[in-house]
Design a protein that fits this description.
Elements (H helix, E strand, L loop, with lengths): L1 H21 L1 H27 L9 H25 L4 H12 L7 H8 L5 H27 L7 H10 L2 H11 L9 H26 L15 H24 L5 H7 L5 H10 L3 H25 L3
Length: about 300
């Protein structure tokens, strides 16, 4: 956990320094790195991770509750963004992407090991790959295609953008169709190694985009403003989402603590990937990721110092 946090922080600072030193070139590099994640890294990671999974019936209820949690916060974000705050479409889409895409992998899995125990890592991996991965590819990319400024103007163009800019989706489908026996022994290790590289790349891009935000006078906005859309994303992601999971667990079937922890993870770096790819509001996206991640890391540190959960 310490190593991942340190690498992510260094990548974030590198992005900040790159933007201050090279500005336009740093933005261009950030965009190319995020595009590379979608077209080169994510397909490999998704395919070899999903094909390696072994699911048992014991976690079925928790997975169902996880999907219910994501769909609930997505619906609430849509109502608040479009009906209450009346945000522009790119900002509404960013709000929805940030509440439905959680950092259950790069942050959730290490936190599970640190706060609950290494024996629960398997459950965290299952949660990440059977909830967050398909949510990102099916719902997150769909939101981007529907609300982004780079996805086209007509419904047909937006549908085309969803399918043509979503290579990881086809990797997921292939992983579900290919027999498990054809999975090479090195596949899971390759996916793990490549997945570790996504977080630093994402945080580098986050650092660049943090410094690209300016107020009306040209002064850089750091930390990003805690605006109404950002506050809504943080509240839905860190309070409402785990609240739904806890409520369903209490009323119906008790689920593992790992699932409760994963439900409380912040907005994921992949929301930044979707925002870049389709043209969602970067200010909302960067703010939601930065504030929610900072709050979760601070809370986890406090709990860890207090002796775990």
């Amino acid at each position: 956990m310490i190593g991942i946090a340190a690498a992510s922080l260094l990548a974030l600072l590198a992005g900040v320094l790159a933007e201050r030193r090279w500005k336009a070139d740093a933005k261009l590099l950030s965009g190319r790195l995020l595009t590379g994640i979608v077209y080169l890294v994510m397909p490999v990671v998704v395919f070899f991770t999903v094909i390696s999974l072994k699911l048992t019936n014991a976690v079925g209820a928790g997975l169902a509750f996880g999907w219910a949690e994501r769909l609930t916060v997505l619906a609430i974000a849509w109502v608040i963004g479009t009906k209450v705050l009346r945000l522009p479409r790119p900002a509404s889409g960013a709000l929805m992407a940030c509440v439905v895409i959680a950092n259950t992998g790069y942050l959730g899995i290490p936190l599970t090991a640190m706060l609950i125990g290494n024996d629960q890592i398997g459950l965290a991996v299952i949660y990440e790959n059977l909830i967050n991965v398909p949510v990102v590819l099916l719902i997150g990319f769909a939101v981007g295609a529907a609300y982004g400024t780079k996805a086209g103007r007509t419904s047909g163009e937006r549908v085309k953008a969803f399918f043509t800019r979503n290579p990881p989706l086809y990797a997921l489908i292939a992983a579900l169709l290919v027999p498990h026996s054809l999975n090479p022994s090195w596949g899971a290790d390759l996916a793990h190694a490549m997945a570790l590289g996504i977080a630093p790349i994402g945080f580098f891009a986050l650092g660049v985009n943090l410094m690209l935000e300016h107020d009306e006078s040209g002064v850089r906005l750091f930390p990003p403003p805690f605006t109404a859309p950002v506050a809504t994303a943080v509240l839905l992601r860190l309070v409402v989402a785990p609240g739904v999971m806890i409520g369903l667990s209490a009323l119906l079937i008790t689920v593992p603590d790992t699932f409760l922890l994963e439900a409380a993870m912040p907005a994921g770096i992949n929301a930044l990937v979707v925002a870049h790819l389709y043209g969602l509001d970067m200010r909302v996206t960067v703010g939601a990721i930065t504030w929610s991640t900072g709050l979760v890391v601070a809370a986890a540190a406090a709990v860890g110092l207090a002796g775990g959960i």
